[in-house]
Amino acid sequence: MKNSNISEYLKDHGIKPSFQRIKIFKYLKDHKNHPTVDIIYKELIKEIPTLSKTTVYNTLNLFMEKNIVNIITIEENETRYDADTSLHGHFKCKECGFVYDFDLNIPQLSKKILKDFETNEKHIYFKGKCKNCIKTH
Question: Considering the entire predicted model, what is its pTM?
């Protein structure tokens, strides 16, 4: 996604497209690493020396309010962010710490089991050892 497209996307969602907001959203779109605030800050401070962690945190909160970013809380003490707002699951490798996306087939679950419920949030998390870590051990 080009910066001009990100700018329009942010405007379409009621967000003023400042330089920092564009860079933070672009980082999320370009890096599927489900970063924490610290990861985003450490990467973008190289390019934006005036960036603060508070700006990253506030920007991510705004993105969540406007439903263009999801929060991932696989671990209680770790908050990660995902710009892919489609319904999908996450797998966290306990060995290397990487978080992977995977597709879900939810229609059957929604039609049969949850038909009488109102769902506000959907989170599917798995933890274990990824295929790369299994190969190396």
Answer: 0.83
